[in-house]
Specification:
Shape: globular
Number of strands: 18
Structural class: mainly beta
Number of domains: 2
Helix content: under 10%
Mean pLDDT: 87
Oligomer: single chain
Order of helices and strands: HHEEEEEEEEEEEEEEEEEE
Number of helices: 2
Largest sheet: 5 strands, mixed
């Protein structure tokens, strides 16, 4: 797989991408980037903010205005390292998300065995409702497919990920806000799954998730621009039982540029 523009940003991310033997110190990495890359999402409703670790190495963190590491971590609804991939050496890992707040600081709320292959990209999702009694969340890991080479700059490449644990399988549609034409972005997608990477003509779109087989709009996201040659993931997150239009844990679609 060719390394795309996202990995060009890993030189910046590497400052926060690993640490020394002191788990609370984030070190600067020099030299060539390793050959695998992971993007970390916190989409577990009710989960605290976390830093992500590969084995005992901290691979995400947040700096404060003072230059010291913040206790903010990756909050619910956020993607670590500003949405960029984190470079890791290929191999076997135990991925953990550890609480950054003073209370329960360093406690792992998820522990996930993972195998990373050279040249491949992955998305790690902290998902499912956070259990306040056991202080645990669910997780899943997806391999992020690359678009066919050479890139077609008349389209963007889009996939749909369903990270809502209590949802029915859903299909995502893109409705062109100029022509009104709709395109199905892959097929039916169940929890912990991703649809196929689908080429979509560049332009402005409203995104609509519907329960497969239904004509009713379940979740919508208005006015998303698809740019030439970009690769995007549209993630459904939240809790399907929440009907509030303002609650943080309501069903939401979010867009993240992968490459």
């Amino acid at each position: 797989m060719t390394f795309f523009k996202s990995l060009a940003a890993l030189g910046c991310c590497a400052v926060l991408a690993a640490c020394s033997m002191d788990k609370n110190a984030v070190q600067v990495i020099a030299g060539p980037a390793p050959g695998a890359a992971v993007k970390f999402y916190n989409v577990s409703p009710g989960a605290p903010s976390v830093n992500f670790y590969a084995n005992d190495t901290k691979v995400t963190a947040v700096s404060s205005t003072s230059g010291q590491e913040s206790t903010a971590g990756t909050a619910y609804g956020s993607v670590a390292t500003g949405g960029f991939y984190t470079a890791l050496a290929p191999g076997q890992y135990t991925m953990t998300g550890r609480i950054t707040a003073t209370t329960d600081n360093g406690l792992a709320i998820v522990s996930a065995p993972s195998t990373l292959t050279d040249g491949k990209y992955y998305s790690f999702y902290l998902s499912g409702p956070y259990n306040t009694a056991t202080k645990r969340s669910d997780f899943f890991i997806l391999e992020d497919a690359a678009p066919p080479a050479p890139l077609d700059y008349a389209v963007a490449y889009v996939r749909f990920v369903n990270a809502i644990s209590n949802s029915s399988p859903m299909t995502l549609y893109a409705k062109n806000t100029t022509s009104g034409a709709e395109i199905a972005l892959g097929g039916s997608v169940a929890y912990k799954s991703a649809g196929a990477l689908t080429p979509v003509p560049i332009g402005p779109y409203d995104l609509i998730a519907r329960v497969t087989g239904s004509a009713a709009n379940t979740i919508t996201l208005a006015a998303v621009g698809f740019s030439p040659g970009r690769v995007l993931t549209i993630t459904a997150r939240g809790d399907m039982t929440i009907s509030s239009t303002t609650a943080a844990t309501r069903p939401i679609l979010t867009a993240s540029t992968d490459r």
